[in-house]
Every structure is written in C-alpha cells, then in structure tokens.
C-alpha cells in the first residue's frame, strides 16, 4: 500500500474525540461501530464529561492519553477543533479524521477553521481527512468508524464524497452479499485528496476494484493522472452525479462543490480508463464482474441460449452497450452444429433449444469452440439455465450441475469471461450455486448482464491504453516565445496581437498563412500582389481584441483597387469607433478558400485544468455541439482519437464527392497546440478558429490568444 | 371485449388434438396445464391411440365429439393439420389454435399448408391462431394451454411473438408477484393479427396494461392505428427486439420475419403512444407502475430524500429519462421550509435529512405542498424510507407506518403519482408493505424508479395525444392528377417527368418555382429573361430518371449567352450519352439561392406502409442521419412535431445571424405531401430534394416521383 497512508488505514491506536454512548447521536454510532467492529488496536475515547464510554475508560483530552496515538477521529463542534488538532499533532498522530460538518461547506467562518487546521497538519506532515466526512472502514485493521454495522470483508473499495451514499452502498452490498476492503468518506477533502486515496488503493493488495462516488471534481488533472496509473493496475468504476442541471443543483446544495460541464467529465474519465456508470445498480454489477471475471481482449461476444427470443433480446442488449456479435468462422460453426437440432444455424447467436434443455452439457460443448476461436472474446449465455430441471424434468438437475462445473473449468482454461443470464437467477439452485462459487457472474436481467460484460471489455481495453500511454514530449518554451509574452505583459495587455500570436504559433511549428504587415495603401497593394488575390486586411492594434466589432477587418479583396479602398476604410472606421486605439499596422493575408473549417481550442478548465478541444467549424460546434475534449498532457495517438470521435468525422474523410482531408497534418497541429499550451501556463485560453484542413496540410486562419492576468 | 374474439378467449369447450400424457412432450405440458389450471368448461382430448388421457375420455377425431366445441387446439404434425381444420370448421368451432411449428417459418411446403388452412377458416369466418405459437392463457376462463404452470391472475395482458419469451416473462412475473389477465402467443399470425388482439384487449375490462413482445412487424399500419385507439383507453408497453444488426440476425433465424430499420419502429411507436422499453426489467417496471399509479399531467417531478447524495442521483436519473426537476414556486418552498433543518434549501430536490429520519411523518408533510402546487406533476421519494427504524431506532418504525399511510392517502386525494425508491425495498418492513398495498410503486433502484415514472408521464401525454388525434382530411385525388398518372402508366413508364411531377404537386397546392418549357435556344433565353437570372436548364424526357447523370442539367446560368450555350450543351450530351431518349423539351427554372435546404420524402415501408420523412439537406441527412418519420395518415399538428424533433431544428429557427425560416409554410408543405401520397396509392416513392425554406414561404426545387409497377 502507498506507504504514506498506511498508518491511517491500519493504525495501531485510535483516539475518538467527542466519543459518546447517547443513542441516536452520530458520535455514538461511530464509537459503537468501532468497538463492535472488532478493531484490534487500542481505542481511547476522549470526552471530558464522562468517565467511561461503552465500558472503556475515557480521557479528558488527546494530550491526556499516556500512550502513542496513530489516528485521531474528531466529532466535536467546529470552534474546538483547532486546539484538538494541535494536541494531536504534538501527540505524534499520523492521521486526523474530522467528521464534524458545518465547516468549509457552510461559509467563511468554517473556511477559516479549515485553513487553520490545514496549516497545522501540513507543517507537521500529518494527514488531514475531511472535514464533513462520515468516517472510514478498513477490513485489514478491522476498523470501522462509519457508524454502519455489519460490513462484510471483500475486495471492493469505495471512495465517496457523500456520507449518506456510503450508507446506501453498504446496504445494497449487504443485500447482494458483497464485501469491502476499504470504505473512505473524503468529505471536503481539505488535506488528503481523491488522487491520494487512489494511489493508496492502487497498491492495496486486498482491493480488486475501486468504486468512486463523486458529486464535484476538484484537482481533476491530478485525479486523471492518478486514475490512469491506477487503471493500469486495477479497475476504477465511477458514479459521478450532476450530469444534468437538477443533479447539479442537488449536488451543489449538498457539498458546496462546483460541478462543471458533464461532457467534459465523461471525456476525461474515458481518457483515463475510468469506467463510468449511471447508477448504483450498474456500479455493483460492473464492480462485481470486474472483481471476478478474466478480462476479454476485445468486444466480440458469442451469445447462446435455448431460445431464439432470448437470443434476440441478448444480442440487442449486447450491441446497444457497444459489444459486437460477429458471425462465427466456418470451422467454429462446424464444431458447434453437431450439438444443435437439424437445420439450426450456428452463426451467432446460437440456439441450442431442443438439445440443451434435455442434455445441459451441450452448453459447455457449444461454448468450447467459441472460446477456442480467435474471433470471440467473451461468452454470454442467456435464457433459463438452472431452471431446466423445473421446466423439463427433475432428472435434468444433475446434468445442469455437470454443465455448470464444466463452464467454470472452461473459464479457467481459456481465460475468457463467461457471463450468464438466467430467469432463475434468484432461485436457490445447485447448478447456479456452482456458477457463483466458480466466479461466473450470474444475472437475473439480460440487460444488466450485457452492460456488465461491456464494462468488462471497456476496462480491459482502457487498461491496455493506460499501460501504453506516453505523454507527448513537453520541454520548455522557445526563448522567442518568452520574449513575446514578456513584451505583452510588460505593456499591461492580456492578449496578443494577431502578428504576435501567429509568430507564437510559428515558433511551435504550427502552420500559419503567409502574411505581411503594411503601413500604407501602396505597401498593402504590393503585399497583396505578392501573396496572391483574393486577400483579407486586418487591423493590428494592442488595444483591439475583437477586430470585426470595430470594422477592423475586410475580406475577399479581389484587386489592388479594393485593397487600397479597404486599407483606408479600416483606418477610418477604427479611428472613429475606437479613437484611443493605437494602430500598429495592417495585416495582409491571402484568403484560403479550399478545405474544411475546424476549430481547435485550449482552456484551463476549473475542474480538469489544461484541456484541449476539437470540432468542425460553424454549426457543428454552435448548434450540434459536436466536439471532443482531452485533458492535457495529451498522450501519443490521442489527437487522432479526438478527430475520429466527432460525429462529423466522415466529412473529413471525404463525402459527397469531396476528396479526403489531410488528417495526419491536423493531428500534428493538435499535438503542437497541446504542447504549446502546457509549456506556457501564462496562456489562459486559445482559440484557433477557423483552422482550414486541406487535401494536403492544415492552416490556422485566425487565432486569439488570451493570457492570465488583469 | 371485442366481441369477435370473445369465444376464443372464453370458450365453453375445448378440443385438444394431439393431447398427450407422455412426460416431456410439448403436448403433454399443454394438456396438463389446461386440466390443472382449473378450466371450467369441457375438455375433449383427441388422440386415436389412447382411450383416456389424464383420466379424461379421448376421441379419435374432432368429428367424433358429440357435443359442441368452441375452440380447437392443434398439436399434431403439419400434414395432418388441414383435415383437422376442416373437421373443426364443420363442427362449428369459433376458433382454431395451431401450436405445431415447422410451417410457414421453415419453407414453401409449410407456407402451402398455412394458405390452405387460412382459406378454410376465412371462408367459414373462424378465427385462426398461430401456427407456431405456444398457446394461450385467459384468467376469465381459467384457461391455460401454454404449458406453464402456476400463472397468477392479475391485470397485465401479454401478446408475444415468441413462445420462449412467454416462458421468461411468466417466470419473471411470478418472482415479482405479478399476475395476468390474458397471455397470447401469436406465432406466425396467419389468421388473427396483432392488431386484432389489441382491439380485443382494449375492450377487456380485466386488462389494465398490454405488454407486447415483438421480433418483426407485419401489417404495421394496422398495428399503429389499432394501437392509437387502444392507447386512448389503456397503456401499451412494447419490447421490440432487432434494434441492432445481431438482434436482427437472431430474430430472423427465429421467426422468418423480416425486421426493418429500427429508427422507423421507434418513430412509429412514439407516434401511436406505445411506450417502448429496452428489456424485460423495464417491461415489468413500467407495466406495474402503469397498472397502479394515477397518470401525471406532465413531466415535472419533485424529488425528496433525507440525503443530498441520493437526491443528486435521483435528479440525474430523472432528467436522463426526460423528466423535469423544476425549482418550486416561492409559496411551495415556504410551506415546506418549516419541516427542514435551519438553512436547508427547499428548491427541489428537497433534503429533509435530520428531521424526517427521527420523525418520518415529515415526509408526507413535505409532499403535500408539492402535490398542491400546479408546478409539480409527480413525486419521487428516494433514500432509506422504511429503514429508519433500523438506522435510527426501533421506535421510529410506527412513525414510518404512519407516514406510509399518509402517503397512500395523498395519492388518492391529489391523484398525482408518488414513486418511492428505498435501499430497503427488498426487506420485509411494515411501512413498505403499507405502500405496496396502497398501490405506491416501490423500487430498490433509483434509476428504475425514475425510468418507470418517466414512462408513466410518456404514456399520460401519449394518451392525451391519442385522444386528440385527428387525421388530416384525405379525399380523392383531383381528376387532373388521375389524368397525369393514367398517361404515364399507359406509356409504360414508372416515373413522371419533371414538368408532370411539378404539375402534380401544384394540383395539391404545393409551392413549386415558376418555370417554362422551351424547345429552342431563343425561347430558352426569352423564358430566362422573364423568370430572372440566374436560371437552371433541365432536360425533359420520359426516358430519363436521373437527369444529371446524362449531362441533362445546367445550373447557375447568368445571361442569355450562357443559357443558349447550355441549351445546346444539354442536347449534345444527352444525344451522345442516351441516343434513344426522346427529348420533349427543356425546363427553365430560376435558381433559388435564398433559404435553407430541406428534404421531404414519402415511401411505402415494408413494415409500416405509407410513411413520410423530413430532414435538412445535404450532410444532415447523408452523414448525420438527422431525420424524422411518421406513419400516414398524418395527424393534425404532427408535421410541426416532425420539423421540431430533428437535431438541426435551431438552424430553421435562425442562428448565427440568419433570420428565422417560415416553419408554418414548411408544415403546410409536409401536410400536403402526406395527403397527396395517401390519396395516390399508385405512387411508390417521392423525393422532394431540395425543398428551400425561405423567410417567407417554402418551395420544392426538385422532385422525383416514382410509381408502383414495372
């Protein structure tokens, strides 16, 4: 386990400040669950008003405890907290958990207390957990001060932002017979952050799957980096609420955390390989399968049943969740056909109705050729398995048990997952018990079986991506770039003029159009002649950010006469509309007619930090919101994924008689923008709009570059 | 009940031909379930090889039965079926159910037998059910020859295309304590069709909700019309598989029915008010809620819980399924606030944590102002209700029961639905039992509660639409239209020339551009001058369907010189590329530059018959597949819905500085196309592409009109 949190999750002794035995009180529930949970270390209840609590001797203060204390749990009113934290640090505690609510989430007073205790603990190098959290469960230490009795040990670990959701999850898990390794309520996460917990659970040998419940994202960039490292080792399944506007309202009133745009959250999670689910059912379905089943190499699934209707339902469910149901190869079909009724196709889905019902071992015999085939990554059995003895005749029962044992063996032998849906999954049936004990996931619902299998494939592929992931090389910005930024900042500006911005891009090897800066009509016409008509003129001024708004742009100028006229026009309009603006010249650029318009942007997102955006121009972004996002740093190959995942991608490939565009150049451009943005943290936002992608090459036609600052 | 099927679903006597008592045989299971099911009429087993079956005397043939027979059930090999059908008709049977498989779905031989028995029964006016069906259950007659024991009585009725899915559904319902009024397996539906069953169940007083399971759609137009009539009375919930390609493969190999494009299916179902679900869980969740709860007037839901996290999850789930979670009005908030902790917002979702847990009657008190408010259509309670006695203290239990009774009363009083999600829903808890018995739907999953509530709103609004639905008036086509079609058909053509097609549209009041037909260069230039430049020229020939392919079109002609050149060019190109084509003249039309390009189409769909299609032009249809469909006849107002439901609709409203387009004219155009297409069944397909919608008016720029026939 991540050594730094080891003593917090496996403390040798715990002081519980505000300990209570008054029924109904939060402190009482936590004191009791700690004692009843069988914690093996020493417990020191701290409460100056009592001599004993649950028959343990109490202490008037942390300082009064004579023995060493590893962990201090605090459940007392806010004003008294800083003093207890100070004493705990002096006492040598390695971790302090503040359960008390009503701090940072309620207002400034609480925020001040948070800041104070954070300073104390940081100076001392002590872990601060919470405040406003509901406690912690650690199976390895038999430690449970969540106030929830009867938690089972197991291989799932939970990190959650909401205490009452931990209650729900615990209850749900109990109903399903699932157990936990660690449950951590992070509360306001003033000290230890989500990503710290992830790195810790990544190394916890008892944790097979990490379950996250999130309402808001803080330090999202750290989260994504830590998640990617974790995903390379073990799965993370996340339920993130606030997808919709009412969800955001509920989450905001709950934790005081700001929940941002949900599209960005999904993109970031996918990038890191986090499996995102929509609800608690899915959370446990997916976590359970991830904890038990081998990982498939892809999304191709063979579906088998004794009924065509169930097969049709299963195939629909599978494909809706992104699995593929390929037609099996001829040799696989041939190997299966002897087990089917005369004339039944063995394409996939496979219908062994009429044979398997009376002779269930037909089922593993049909599975085996599928598992042997390189075209099948997983098996999905659907229908009535386990119920044949009831539907057909009792003597079939032992044959079903034989089939179940064989299925368990097949999974071990081929290391490919088998998932079973059975209408009889709720019943107590020996054959189904063999599947359960053999680690074969069993579902009463075909839909949920398909979703879990799809998530298994998502994770398996995400893990591969996380393991292969290499960030694009980022070093330090070219000196000339620093000079430009220095000049802009010393002039008190927060944006670059267009020639400055174009120069900036050029220094990073980002293609910009040929251009000239001119200061007279004649120079303008001459420059236009050299560049080639038609051209555009744009005013250059450190005081003007939106050039079009002040009449500072003239487009599509076809000859010298028009250029000269436009030159005068721009000067006149800008002087009359913005007389204080200093005009440093006029930019002459050729009009680029050819190519597909795209948009490339980069922002510092309040949730995830530096991010990059890609979309097609115009209505595709503005009306259809057809854009892709990535958190920076960008990994190798991710620019290509960004381009391919937008809905309008076929337009770049060439449709309706248009030739394909230069996607490779566009990828290179995106990558260079990503590197530029990471290497220059002074840049707050950049907007390359439009970028024209031609049959050969991609060029930035207009750029806006805004700096942090005034 | 629909009188014509009354005797089939409530027969006074049943002959079962092929009756058996050999364990494991399909006929044995059906004979036994009929006898054990407690059927109150007479049962006549027919089997020449036995004297008695299950202690009932047998008959060697149907003719040999001395008493009247209402219903004959047939489970014998195909070749013997026609003779039995003949005898049954002579015997005066009102219905014949053929369970035997291996007929129309396997090949021509079977199809011939189907045709033969259909002819016999149709002549006699006898209902033919199946073949290849699995039987029937009718609670009112205590009749069950499905071969599935232990079916409970209730208010759900099932009509299904797959026998083994009926097995699944029965098992699922038994696990959930749900019961049925009728279960009908339609098999190949050679005689009685799906829409006949719908009309029958519409009038069945015992049926509250109709559940459909479909693999393929036949007679889709009849289905949609019958469904709309039914939906005006009671809900239909449909699980239609074959959404995806593998689903289609599985369904096709199963029933031999062709499953078409799924987008069309969803559109048609929505149009009729059928609630479509994705899987068996949803089917029962939704059916159960529809059978119990009052119908909401809209989609606005108040969400309440003792925990902010559960509220956030519920709000997400609600909005994802199309419900709205509005901020409550000030007076409603004020009425709720006294029941909340100091400082807790009452906006919605409402968090009564800290009060309701110790005093559960706070819950109905918070619900009441919501129910009184005109801004709330339904209530969604989420969290731990029922489990407070376990979490807090046992004395809370009776208070939870009091709260549950009050919730039941509130539903009755306000006739608005309350749906409850509780983590404790699986447990045996008195408070939850009160909810169940009081008809309040209870879910263990927040997601499934939200989905069911959304489906309730979908149905309620769909019912209103079905009740208000009036078809657009359709009469008989104008005589001049008949003349055009007559001329085209007598010339052996299957498409109209463009002037013919334009004339056809004009006769229906569909706006077409001014145009001239010319036969010389000079006439062309003169016509262009009158119409105004720029113009387009198009060849007119009864032999040319795709004019552009043979060089028969010239666009954007700016002056007389270009027009004359183009005139010659078209003649030359067409003569060289299609020398056999007779050129009847050249069409001169002005180019319409302004406006937004749309596509309007009409087809005779193999599943749903006449349908109309709408989309924006170009990439919107070809790349983004952003189109809307409706089955004809179109109802009043449906054209407007079609236009508004495409993703690109904002473009018609005007974005990026473009003025809004004339949507009313576009609606009128769609409606007239719908009427034209219905009134002229000789037209197989029409394609108005593009239609230009301007700020004022909408005009068809190009039209292709293809007839049925050679």
Q: Care to give the gist of this entry?
A:
Helices cover 40% and strands 19% of the residues of chain A. With 710 residues, chain A is α/β, with parallel strands linked by helices. The longest helix of chain A has 23 residues, at 446-468.
Please supply descriptive tags for the structure shown above.
25 helices; alpha/beta; D-amino Acid Aminotransferase, Chain A, domain 1; homodimer; about 20% strand; 29 strands; 7-stranded mixed beta sheet; about 700 residues; Dna Ligase, domain 1; Rossmann fold
Task: Tell me about this structure.
The structure is a homodimer of 710-residue chains. With 710 residues, chain A is α/β, with parallel strands linked by helices. Among the domains of chain A are: 295-468, Succinyl-CoA synthetase domains (Rossmann fold, 3-Layer(aba) Sandwich), CATH 3.40.50; 514-591, ATP-grasp fold, A domain (Dna Ligase, domain 1, 2-Layer Sandwich); 596-707, ATP-grasp fold, B domain (D-amino Acid Aminotransferase, Chain A, domain 1, 2-Layer Sandwich), CATH 3.30.470.20. Helix content of chain A is 40%, strand content 19%. The first copy, chain A, has 25 helices and 29 strands. In chain A, the strands form 6 sheets. The first copy, chain A, has a 7-stranded mixed sheet with strand order 9-8-11-10-12-13-14, sandwiched between helices. In chain A, α6 (194-202) packs parallel to α7 and α11 packs parallel to α17. Chains A and B meet through α5, α8, α10, α11 and α17 of A and α5, α8, α10, α11 and α17 of B.
């Amino acid at each position: 386990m991540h050594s730094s949190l080891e003593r917090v999750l496996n403390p040798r002794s715990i002081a519980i400040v505000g300990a209570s035995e008054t029924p109904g009180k939060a402190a009482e529930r936590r004191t009791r669950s700690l004692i009843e949970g069988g914690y093996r270390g020493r417990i020191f209840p701290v409460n100056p008003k009592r001599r004993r609590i649950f028959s343990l001797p109490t202490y008037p203060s942390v300082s009064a405890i004579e023995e060493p204390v590893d962990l201090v749990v605090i459940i007392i009113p806010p004003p008294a907290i800083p003093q207890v934290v100070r004493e705990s640090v002096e006492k040598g505690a390695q971790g302090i958990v503040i359960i008390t609510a009503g701090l940072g989430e309620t207002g400034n007073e609480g925020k001040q207390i948070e800041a104070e205790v954070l300073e104390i603990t940081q100076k001392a190098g002590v872990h601060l957990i919470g405040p406003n959290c509901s406690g912690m469960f650690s199976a390895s230490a038999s430690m449970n001060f969540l106030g929830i009795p009867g938690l089972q040990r197991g291989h799932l670990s939970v990190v959650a932002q909401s205490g009452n959701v931990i209650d729900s999850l615990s209850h749900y898990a109990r109903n399903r017979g699932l157990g936990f390794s660690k449950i951590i309520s992070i509360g306001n996460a003033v000290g230890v952050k989500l990503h710290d917990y992830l790195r810790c659970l990544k190394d916890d040998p008892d944790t097979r799957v990490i379950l996250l419940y999130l309402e808001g994202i803080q330090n999202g960039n750290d989260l994504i980096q830590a998640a990617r490292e974790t995903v390379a080792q073990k799965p993370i399944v996340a339920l993130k609420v606030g997808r919709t506007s009412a969800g955001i309202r509920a989450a905001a009133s709950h934790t005081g955390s700001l929940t941002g745009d949900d599209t960005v959250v999904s993109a970031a999670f996918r990038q890191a390989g986090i499996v995102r689910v929509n609800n608690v059912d899915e959370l446990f379905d997916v976590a359970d399968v991830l904890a038990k089943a081998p990982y498939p190499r892809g999304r191709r699934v063979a579906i088998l049943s004794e009924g065509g209707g169930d097969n049709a339902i299963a195939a629909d469910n599978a494909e809706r969740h992104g699995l593929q149901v390929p037609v099996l190869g001829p040799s696989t079909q041939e190997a299966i056909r002897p087990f089917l009724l005369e004339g039944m196709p063995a394409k996939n889905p496979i219908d062994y109705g009429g044979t398997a019902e009376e002779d269930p071992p037909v089922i593993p015999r049909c599975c085996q050729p599928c598992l042997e085939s390189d075209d099948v990554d997983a098996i999905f059995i659907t229908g009535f398995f386990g119920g044949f003895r009831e539907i057909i005749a009792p003597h079939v029962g032992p044959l079903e048990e034989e089939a179940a044992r064989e299925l368990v063996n097949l999974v071990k032998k081929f290391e490919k997952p088998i998932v079973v849906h059975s209408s009889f999954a709720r019943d107590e049936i020996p054959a189904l018990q063999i599947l359960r004990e053999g680690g074969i996931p069993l579902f009463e619902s075909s839909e949920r079986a398909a979703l879990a299998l799809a998530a298994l494939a998502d994770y398996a592929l995400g893990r591969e991506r996380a393991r292969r992931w290499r960030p694009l090389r980022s070093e330090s910005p070219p000196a000339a770039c620093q000079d430009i930024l220095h000049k802009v900042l010393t002039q008190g500006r927060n944006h670059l003029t267009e020639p400055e911005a174009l120069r900036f891009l050029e220094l990073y090897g980002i293609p910009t159009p040929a251009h000239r800066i001119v200061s007279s009509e004649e120079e303008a016409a001459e420059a236009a002649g050299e560049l080639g008509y038609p051209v555009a003129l744009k005013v250059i001024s450190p005081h003007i950010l939106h050039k079009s708004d002040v009449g500072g742009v003239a487009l599509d100028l076809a000859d010298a006469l028009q250029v000269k006229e436009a030159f005068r026009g721009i000067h006149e309009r800008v002087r009359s509309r913005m007389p204080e603006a200093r005009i440093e010249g006029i930019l002459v650029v050729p009009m680029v007619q050819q190519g597909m318009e795209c948009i490339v942007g980069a922002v510092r997102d309040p949730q995830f930090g530096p991010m990059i955006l890609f979309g097609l121009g115009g209505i595709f972004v503005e009306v259809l919101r057809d854009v892709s996002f990535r958190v920076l740093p960008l990994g190798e190959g991710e620019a290509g994924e960004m381009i391919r995942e937008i809905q309008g991608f076929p337009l770049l490939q060439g449709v309706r008689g248009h030739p394909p565009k230069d996607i490779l150049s566009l990828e290179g451009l995106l990558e260079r923008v990503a590197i530029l943005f990471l290497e220059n943290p002074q840049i707050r936002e950049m907007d390359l709009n439009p970028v024209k992608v031609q049959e050969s090459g991609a060029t930035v036609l207009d750029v806006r570059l805004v700096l942090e600052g005034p």
